[in-house]
């Protein structure tokens, strides 16, 4: 949920591999808690896929939860792109009337946020992605104190993500890991290779 | 700068950083290295007529919208481009504006603070993801090479491999009288270049006063400016409200531009001293303090609370 244009050819969300379950559970917990802390309409984690130069929705709580996960956006644009680039958390308010805000995405989600809080997910000197909070309660946004809280929570989330996914490249490009059909293709390829090596192919 | 070899740059005829350095005074006395100094504004406060006129400010950010009524047409718009195949990084003129809104917001705060300064934009976002640091480095290096008077850098990198290079670049800027005003992190994150003493680092305070800055007696971040619920220009000629250290930084950059417009010979360390002297929490004589109302301390309107600050 950012002021960016979604990639229209986004593939359907692949079924998560069993090994992704703890990570998905962690990320879902992060967005659920962030949403609760700030009394927000939604919260999401976008992870950076540096190879594809994209940000990927990896977990969503609230508005958009059913269909945003897996969607990809160009990483060099929009508020999330800037937060990932600059490493600086920020709050923007009055977004609903922003003509630059992507209406196609807003209409597809039937929800236009008025306020967006975003903090970088930084661990061990790497920006892994961005934690966003949409339409926090008016009492819980627009102040430095709340932004500090979001930044601290994002640090904790990034550290947890790093622990659970030791390889930073794997954490940052999880969307590129072999999943779903790709995983099946890879297994078939390995099977074929095994047959060749055994001389039975 | 001592003896200098004048070289022409896009910025004018001031020597480029690193050129014409004086390494020793062997055979030369004080009369051989005269300096026409400027004591700066009394108390560090920029004078009323100081509008930033003649001061060149560079915003290294997401670009600046080309015709926002609260910013005006930037004097120059540039973009850092990295060739996808060769990896070569170049800085080129661009006609595109802002890819995010953030740079326009920063430029607007600078314009509001120093209405007549000259604003240039270097975009480090929008071609490809640039958080890896090399594009930021290239943008900042270019700005320093162009000898801008003030560089607003509302960003940082956590990549330690750039720390040494950034440190050298920040020191070069400092000695060449290009003051880098850089956003600090609001949590204890190791990032650069705001951690270096050769830049002016800025965080956000919690006061409502839009013309207030504070000095931090316990750095690493040295100054705090207004960055909470700030009204800023945004994309499409609009205005929105924002919060973050990155919006306190251009206020201090604008202050520097105002001071420099009246005192163009001031050095980077003099500018820092002027900010220190004019900070609302710095007292110049011992004695009873006269606390100002503080939003952070919970004071509102006439309800003065002398218990803090």
Structure description:
The complex is a heterodimer of chains A (201) and B (309). Chain A has 201 residues and is of the alpha+beta class. Chain A contains six helices and six strands. Chain A has one domain (18-198): GAF domain (Beta-Lactamase), CATH 3.30.450. In chain A, 39% of the residues lie in helices and 21% in strands. In chain A, helix 1 runs antiparallel to helix 4 (144-164). Chain B has 309 residues and is α/β, with parallel strands linked by helices. Chain B has a single domain (51-278), classed as Rossmann fold, CATH 3.40.50. Chain B is 21% helix and 17% strand. Chain B contains five helices and eleven strands. Chain B has a nine-stranded mixed sheet with strand order 3-2-4-1-5-6-7-9-8, with helices on both faces. Chain B has a two-stranded antiparallel ribbon with strand order 10-11. In chain B, helix 2 runs parallel beside helix 3. The longest helix of chain B has 18 residues, at 245-262. Chains A and B meet through helix 2, strand 4 and helix 4 of A and strand 11 and helix 4 of B. Chain B: Belongs to the peptidase S8 family. Chain B: Residues 1-53, 282-309 are annotated as: Disordered. Chain B: This is Peptidase S8/S53 domain-containing protein.
Write the layout of secondary structure elements.
The complex is a heterodimer of chains A (201) and B (309).
Chain A: H1 21-37, E1 42-49, E2 54-62, E3 72-74, H2 78-86, E4 90-93, H3 103-109, E5 115-123, E6 126-134, H4 144-164, H5 168-172, H6 180-198
Antiparallel strand pairs in A: 1-2, 1-6, 2-3, 4-5, 5-6
Chain B: E1 56-61, E2 76-82, E3 89-93, H1 102-113, E4 118-123, H2 134-145, E5 150-153, H3 163-175, E6 179-183, E7 200-205, E8 214-215, E9 223-226, E10 230-233, E11 239-243, H4 245-262, H5 268-278
Helix pairs in contact in B: 1-4, 2-3
């Amino acid at each position: 949920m950012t002021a960016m244009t979604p990639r229209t050819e986004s593939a359907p969300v692949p079924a998560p591999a069993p090994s992704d379950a703890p990570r998905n559970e962690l990320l879902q917990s992060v967005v659920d808690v962030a949403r609760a802390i700030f009394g927000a309409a939604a919260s999401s984690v976008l992870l950076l896929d540096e190879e594809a130069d994209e940000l990927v929705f990896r977990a969503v709580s609230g508005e958009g939860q059913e269909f945003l996960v897996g969607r990809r956006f160009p990483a060099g644009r929009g508020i999330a792109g800037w937060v990932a680039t600059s490493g600086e958390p920020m709050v923007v308010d009055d977004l609903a009337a922003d003509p630059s805000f992507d209406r196609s995405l807003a209409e597809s989600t039937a929800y236009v946020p008025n306020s967006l809080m975003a903090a970088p997910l930084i661990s061990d000197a790497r920006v892994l992605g961005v934690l966003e909070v949409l339409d926090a309660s008016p009492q819980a946004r627009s102040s430095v104190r709340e932004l500090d809280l979001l930044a601290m929570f994002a640090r904790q989330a990034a550290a947890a993500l790093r622990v659970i996914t030791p390889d930073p490249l794997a954490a940052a490009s999880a969307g590129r890991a072999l999943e779903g059909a790709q995983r099946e293709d890879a297994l078939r390829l390995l099977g074929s290779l095994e047959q060749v090596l055994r001389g039975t192919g | 700068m001592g003896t200098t070899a004048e070289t022409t740059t896009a910025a004018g005829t001031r020597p480029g950083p690193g050129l014409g350095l004086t390494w020793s005074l062997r055979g030369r006395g004080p009369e051989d290295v005269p300096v026409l100094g400027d004591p700066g504004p009394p108390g560090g406060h920029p004078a009323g007529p100081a509008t930033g006129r003649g001061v060149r400010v560079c915003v290294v950010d997401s670009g600046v919208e080309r015709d926002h009524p609260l910013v005006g047409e930037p004097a120059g718009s540039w973009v850092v481009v990295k060739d996808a195949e060769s990896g070569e990084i170049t800085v080129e003129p661009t006609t595109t504006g802002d890819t995010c809104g953030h740079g326009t917001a920063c430029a607007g705060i600078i314009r509001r603070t120093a209405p007549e300064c000259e604003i240039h934009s270097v975009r480090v976002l929008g071609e490809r993801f640039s958080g890896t640091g090399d594009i930021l480095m290239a943008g900042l290096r270019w700005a320093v090479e162009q000898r801008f008077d003030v560089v607003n850098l509302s960003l940082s990198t956590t990549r330690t491999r750039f720390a040494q290079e950034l440190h050298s670049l920040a020191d070069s800027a400092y000695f060449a009288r290009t003051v880098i005003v850089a956003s600090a992190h609001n949590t204890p994150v190791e990032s650069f270049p705001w951690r270096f003493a050769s830049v002016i680092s800025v965080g956000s305070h919690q006061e409502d006063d839009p013309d207030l800055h504070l000095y931090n007696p316990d750095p690493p971040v040295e100054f705090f400016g207004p960055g909470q619920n700030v009204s800023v220009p945004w994309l499409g000629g609009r205005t929105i409200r924002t919060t973050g250290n990155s919006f306190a930084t251009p206020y201090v950059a604008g202050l520097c531009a105002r001071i420099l417009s009246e005192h163009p010979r001031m050095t980077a360390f003099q500018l820092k001293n002027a900010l220190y002297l004019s900070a609302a929490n710095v007292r110049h004589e011992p004695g009873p303090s006269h606390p100002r109302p503080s939003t952070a301390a919970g004071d509102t309107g006439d309800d003065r609370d002398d218990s803090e600050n």
